[in-house]
Design a protein that fits this description.
heterodimer; A: Aconitase, Domain 2; five-stranded parallel beta sheet; 16 helices; 32% helix; globular; B: alpha/beta; Aconitase, domain 4; four-stranded antiparallel beta sheet; 8 strands
Chain lengths: 463, 207
């Protein structure tokens, strides 16, 4: 029988049909962080429940960690308390935990893949909507709320309804200066921020097939911005090569057995889908958001269109007919679970090398994990950024959602490699976010305004 | 205090009656409902004070600032309400503020799931019906609106609109078993059996 990965994984993890008609679905990997878990642990304690599968549960601290100095205790008393509470909960319930000073610490959606915890064919849940990121490996991964975190802790299961599956094909060659971020922003723009509600997105096609794992993570990460709680890419040789040798990945003969099982979970060539759409990669340009949701974007060469009464225009200070190119920026942020991995930093460094950040711009690079930091420093990327006038920070979520001291002030405009341009998202209620690729952020930091990255890429790349 | 009981709304959650609050606009995200800085806490207590805090500060005419809608029990919204972050702090804040049911054109899945988990029904109706309902509430903010899970009917004066919700949410709210943990734990032996069949749990042993 031919079927999609979504249905194969769902069926393999279905425990039983609940009286409500929902499926009791087993969760193969549960990632826990400090913001959405404390109330869940409290509920466990009050009911006398244990954690059902502590060895399928991993915790770290990412949202609230400061990035300037990660010395404990944190200066922010509440951040310190949240960290202490997570530490106590992990100790009490026997959950593996990586503290801020541990080599494995980082954003949950960065460290899961990098440690080999994230594998094809799994179900993965975390109290964070960007859990869709892990779908890049061919896992069914989704964000949950705190009450559901409690359910997964207590039973390793969730009560869920299945999703429909939309196949999104991207075919052809991406032009120089166009990145995975531009691909997903284009998809969200076309299908809408509500378009994915009720669906899992399966990304495929020749463009997707050629992407690295880190690029695939960027694509799947932003599925939720298109309304799709789940986004995934079928596992292939790129996936298997990435996993080989990772700390939690199977080894030797077990790896061969794993690969066979992983392959068997991929969608069959003749699988049926509830919907299909296709994109031409060659038509995608560097893309940047202008509004207050991730679907409000334009190609960098394009003018903004829309209803002038849309609150996004007044909030952002744009008018219909404006271009985003040429917009002066105050802050440049390279980081977040969308675009803080080594290849993101390498690409940004390529643009930054030998240049200076514009004098009026505050620019920071926040690696997604301590491993990304180490790898980047081994390549000397930290020096490239610092020499250009960027701040090189410790790992964490940082200015993506500003739960730590990194935040916008007043109406500052930030060129950001993160995932959400919601009002107030970067910590100032009136702060403004322009989402774009890390390369575009780097180019904007140097120019002091939004520019087409293709005009600053080394000529060898564009030739 | 027992957390389940602290999260359980009044026994009438299958039928909510009270004044209503129309909040117009599509794609109202959870960062707006509950800005991230208020997530810096280890409990949900006090979140009612911060519902739409930044939107309210920016707009004196925001419906949550409007005294005519004070004490509303039913929130009426448009499309894709609660998109974005999975933070349960958003529905928790609304519920603690006094909202016991939400009626809208559509909801983000994560938000809707979170709301049901704390016993707050999310009714879905077509755009024209929602518009009529919002107008009716704006015309007469003191009107008592009822939202009935069993029948799916939302009534405001003479206006009656038909709404739906996912069957499992409806059944859970009607039976009082919207909180599934105990049900999930009932199947724990089957859970262990499923785990035993999944090859990755034991890191792909030879079999």
């Amino acid at each position: 029988m031919s079927d999609t990965l979504f249905h194969k994984v769902w069926d393999a993890h279905a425990v039983r049909r609940l009286p409500s008609g929902q499926t009791q679905l087993f969760v193969g990997l549960h990632l826990v962080h400090e913001v959405t878990s404390p109330q869940a642990f409290d509920m466990l304690r009050q009911h006398g429940w244990r954690v059902a599968f502590p060895d399928r549960t991993f915790a770290t601290v990412d949202h609230i960690v400061p990035t300037r100095s990660q010395q404990r205790p944190f200066l922010d008393v509440m951040a310190e308390e949240m960290t202490v509470v997570l530490e106590r909960n992990c100790r009490e319930f026997g959950i593996p935990y990586w503290p801020p000073d541990n080599d494995n610490q980082g954003i949950v959606h960065v460290i899961g893949p990098e440690l080999g915890l994230t594998q094809p064919g799994m179900t993965i849940a975390c109290g964070d909507s960007h859990t869709s990121t892990h779908g890049a490996f061919g896992a069914i991964a989704f964000g949950i709320g705190t009450s559901q975190v409690r359910d997964v802790l207590a039973s390793q299961c969730l009560a869920l309804d299945p999703l429909k599956v939309r196949r999104i094909d991207v075919n052809g060659s991406m032009r120089p200066g166009v990145y995975a971020k531009d691909v997903i922003l284009t998809i969200i723009r076309q299908l809408g921020v509500q378009g994915g509600v009720g669906y899992a997105y399966e990304y495929g096609g020749t463009t997707i097939d050629r992407l690295s794992m880190e690029e695939r993570l960027t694509i799947c990460n932003m599925s939720i911005e298109g309304g799709a709680r789940v986004g995934y890419i079928n596992p292939d040789d790129t996936t298997f090569a990435y996993l080989q040798g990772r700390r939690f990945a199977p080894r030797d003969a077990a790896f061969d057995r794993a690969r066979a099982w992983w392959r068997s979970m991929a969608s069959d060539a003749r699988a049926g889908y509830d919907d299909r759409v296709a994109f031409d990669a060659a038509a995608i340009e560097p893309t940047v958001t202008w509004g207050i949701n991730p679907g409000q974007s334009v190609r960098i060469s394009e003018r903004i269109e829309g209803d002038p009464h849309d609150e996004a225009f007044a909030f952002m200070g744009f008018q219909p007919g404006d271009r985003v190119a040429g917009t002066k920026i105050d802050v440049a942020f390279i980081g977040s679970c969308t675009n803080s991995r080594l290849s993101d930093l390498e690409e940004a460094a390529r643009i930054v090398r030998g240049h200076r950040v514009a004098p009026h711009v505050k620019a920071l690079v926040v690696p997604g994990s301590r491993a990304v930091s180490r790898d980047a420093e081994a390549l000397g990327l930290d020096r490239v950024f610092v020499d250009a006038g960027f701040e090189w920070r410790g790992a964490g979520c940082s200015m993506c959602l500003a739960m730590n001291p990194d935040r916008l002030e007043g109406r500052e405009i930030c060129a950001s490699s993160s995932n959400r341009n919601f009002k107030g998202r970067q910590g100032s209620p009136t702060g403004r976010t322009l989402l774009m690729s890390p390369a575009m952020v780097a180019a904007a930091a140097i120019a002091g305004e939004v520019v087409d990255v293709r005009t600053v890429l080394p000529e060898a790349v564009l030739a | 205090m027992n957390p389940a009981s602290s999260h359980q709304p009044p026994a009438t959650s299958a039928r909510v009656a009270g004044r209503a609050l129309p909040l117009r606009g599509d794609d109202i995200d959870t960062d707006r409902i509950m800005p991230a800085r208020f997530l810096k806490a280890v409990s949900f207590e006090g979140l009612e004070r911060h519902v739409f805090e930044d939107d309210r500060a920016a707009d004196p005419a925001h419906p949550f600032n409007d005294a005519r809608y004070g004490g509303a029990a039913i929130l009426v919204v448009n499309r894709n309400f609660g998109c974005g972050s999975s933070r349960e702090h958003a529905p928790q804040g609304l519920q603690r503020y006094g909202i016991r049911a939400i009626v809208g054109e559509s909801f983000s899945e994560i938000f809707q799931g979170n709301a049901v988990m704390i016993g707050m029904p999310c009714f879905v109706a077509d755009g024209a019906s929602i518009d009529r309902l919002q107008r009716e509430i704006e015309r007469d903010p003191a009107a008592i609106v009822t939202a009935d899970v069993a029948s799916g009917l939302v009534q405001a004066g003479a206006l009656e609109i038909r709404a739906t919700m996912p069957p499992a949410a409806r059944d859970g709210l009607l039976s009082g078993r919207w909180n599934p943990t105990a049900m999930l734990l009932d199947g724990i032996d089957e859970v262990r059996a499923v785990a035993g069949r999944l090859p990755y749990i034991a890191n792909f042993p030879a079999r």
